[in-house]
């Protein structure tokens, strides 16, 4: 099932909160010996909606009227809201140049290998304080930064021209829609009965 939020999104002002460009995140890792990559599990549904806003996500099924209690990825300002939330959670670590956060991806920067465990521990404590969940299958720890940069450079040089990316993006969108239908509403957050 797929819920159409077109009308709701038309009436919501665009959140001007800026997202980093991914190249800025990669460039900020210069001078680090090791990098650790964290992936926040089922990102958007980790953010609760205000009770007053939950009714705005309501939809009707043959079984009744439901609404979301957590953020749906189809809402207009989801990425900006998520970025703001993860930055608030990791504020001290970002300020101390220990981590970079890009939507649901977090990079822990270790300048000296002897501090790797302390850096990971500090980041985990901050995430735990806000009850963020990670996807352990996508987390990688202690990658030499030279290896990570080489992978990034090789991807950059093998990129396809913009014209061919449109059809690839369309196929990806179709695949996501197919998976959404197969797994229920958005495949992650669970609606509640009103």
Descriptive notes:
It is a single chain. The protein has 194 residues and is α+β, with helices and mostly antiparallel strands. The protein is 42% helix and 15% strand. The protein has helices at 6-10, 22-27, 51-54, 78-89, 91-95, 116-129, 145-157, 162-183, and strands spanning 34-39, 59-61, 64-67, 99-102, 105-110, 140-144, 192-193. A four-stranded antiparallel beta sheet has the order 4-5-1-6. It has a three-stranded antiparallel beta sheet with strand order 2-3-7, with no helix packed on it. It is elongated and about 55 Å long. The model is unreliable at 154-188 (pLDDT under 50).
Please report which band the strand proportion falls in: under 5%, 5-15%, 15-25%, 25-35%, 35-45% or over 45%: 15-25%
* Silhouette: elongated
Q: What is the β-strand count? A: 7
Query: Helix/strand-derived class?
Result: alpha+beta
Distance between the termini: 17 Å
Assembly level: single chain
As residue ranges, the low-confidence spans are 154-188
Helix/strand order, N-terminal first: HHEHEEHHEEHEHHE
Please give the radius of gyration in angstroms: 19 Å
Helix content: 40-55%
Largest sheet, spatial ordering of strands: 4-5-1-6
DSSP summary: helix tally:
8
* Mean pLDDT reading: 77
Summarize the main sheet.
Answer: 4 strands, antiparallel
